[in-house]
Q: What sequence folds into this?
């Protein structure tokens, strides 16, 4: 069931909050099904125990992984060719951003459609995690580091820990 939620979820970047809530409810129902939990039980401990990211973080994860693949040359060229590093822009060669691994966010006309195109959304997602993106070369190591970072965002350390029935 989770693979159905993850299937092409990077295309869901920038969708409305109501659609994200609907997808999150599907993910919550899957977690309750796995644990045979009641609807009255709090869902966060179940998601945390399974190490499942929330839907918004899942979308962000898939975008960053696809961007990493584009920058390492393992993604399809039609996607990789749409991304541009700030170091490659002639006007920015003297700026501090030229020495980082950030990407140029292309200008868009409409926030409803334009910001959802792959180059714009992937560049924004990548730039938010560019501090460790350039140093990690292998795909599995990048995925692990990114998922850990996004998991800490989804479930902060100071989040109240609810114990579920099956956990002592």
A:
């Amino acid at each position: 069931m989770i693979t159905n939620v993850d299937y092409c979820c990077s295309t869901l970047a920038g969708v409305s909050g109501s659609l994200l809530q609907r997808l999150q409810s599907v993910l919550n129902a899957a977690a309750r099904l796995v644990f045979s939990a009641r609807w009255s039980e709090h869902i966060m401990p179940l998601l945390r125990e399974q190490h499942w990211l929330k839907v918004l973080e899942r979308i962000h994860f898939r975008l960053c992984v696809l961007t990493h693949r584009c920058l390492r040359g393992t993604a399809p060229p039609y996607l990789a060719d749409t991304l541009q590093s700030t170091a490659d822009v002639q006007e920015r060669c003297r700026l501090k951003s030229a020495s980082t691994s950030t990407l140029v966010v292309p200008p868009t006309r409409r926030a409803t459609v334009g910001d959802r195109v792959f180059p714009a959304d992937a560049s924004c997602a990548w730039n938010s995690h560019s501090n460790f993106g350039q140093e990690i070369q292998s795909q599995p190591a990048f995925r692990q580091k990114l998922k850990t970072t996004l998991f800490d965002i989804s479930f902060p350390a100071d989040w109240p820990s609810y114990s579920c029935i099956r956990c002592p």
User: Anything to note?
Assistant: Residues 17-35 form the longest helix (19 residues). Confidence is low (pLDDT under 50) at residues 162-168. The chain has one domain: 2-154.
